[in-house]
Amino acid sequence: MKKLSLLTLIVLILALAMPSLAHEDRTLEDFSFAVGWRVEPAFSGQMNGPEVYIAFINPPAEGSRSALEALDVDLQIEVSFGPESITLPLKPNLPFYSESEGGGHINFVADLVPTLPGDYTFRVTGTIEGLAVDETFTSADGMFSTVEPLSDIQFPRAGAIDLAALLERIETLEARLAEIESAGS
């Protein structure tokens, strides 16, 4: 019983120490950054948004926190779903600096409510300390959450609206109406 409790405690500590396991990591010269949803799994119709963690690959021996907080970061994020996209500014999230294994990281977010389930693409552009950033991340790669239908977690289900199912039904009815109209002409 003690071994199980100790193992559970270790797993919990490791899980809390990491920014998120459901983010895609990239390296850009002296920096690493991770991109994903702020809340994972992501559900349609729920406040969420993309987030970016930035850290030094080789943190300075002293002053990692002050060095990270002093970085000149100017980033934005383009969020795409199918043919639609929106560009949002990335703003510092509080707490802005967090400790993690091997150093620390700073955190930026954008507010967004994903309205439909499916795969979303994030394109991060801008600069970190004058270094050009232009990186694309997609949930279709499985590195961060595909947006799931809100109906998966709604309870009680009576009265719950599944927007994706409703849109599909409207498209079906529109196609049927077009068939009827063309047959009547």
Describe this structure as you would to a colleague:
The structure is a single chain. The protein is of the alpha+beta class and 185 residues long. The chain has one domain (20-158): Sandwich (Immunoglobulin-like), CATH 2.60.40.10. It contains three helices and nine strands, in the order H-E-E-E-H-E-E-E-E-E-E-H. It has helices at residues 2-17, 64-69, 163-184, and strands spanning 24-28, 31-37, 50-56, 73-81, 84-89, 91-100, 103-109, 121-128, 131-138. A five-stranded antiparallel beta sheet has the order 1-2-3-7-6. A hairpin with a 2-residue loop joins strand 1 (24-28) and strand 2 (31-37). The longest helix is centred in the last third of the chain and has 22 residues, at 163-184. The model is unreliable at 6-20 (pLDDT under 50).
Helix and strand arrangement:
Blueprint: H1 2-17, E1 24-28, E2 31-37, E3 50-56, H2 64-69, E4 73-81, E5 84-89, E6 91-100, E7 103-109, E8 121-128, E9 131-138, H3 163-184
Antiparallel strand pairs: 1-2, 2-3, 3-7, 4-5, 4-8, 6-7, 8-9
Summarize this entry quickly.
By secondary structure, the protein is an alpha+beta fold. The chain contains 3 helices and 9 strands; from the N terminus they run H-E-E-E-H-E-E-E-E-E-E-H.
Apparent shape: elongated
- The CATH topology label is Immunoglobulin-like
Rounded average pLDDT = 83
Give the SSE string.
HEEEHEEEEEEH
Please indicate the percent range of residues in DSSP E strands (runs of 2 or more). Answer: 35-45%
Structural class: alpha+beta
Spans where pLDDT lies below 50 across 5 or more residues: 6-20
| Extended strand count | 9
Main sheet: which strands, in order across? 1-2-3-7-6
Q: Would you state the CATH class?
A: Mainly Beta
Largest sheet: 5 strands, antiparallel
* CATH second-level architecture: Sandwich
Specify Rg, calculated over alpha carbons: 21 Å
What is the number of helical segments per DSSP (H or I, 4+ residues)?
3
Q: What's the domain count?
A: 1
* CATH evolutionary superfamily: Immunoglobulins
Terminus-to-terminus distance: 77 Å
Helix content: 10-25%
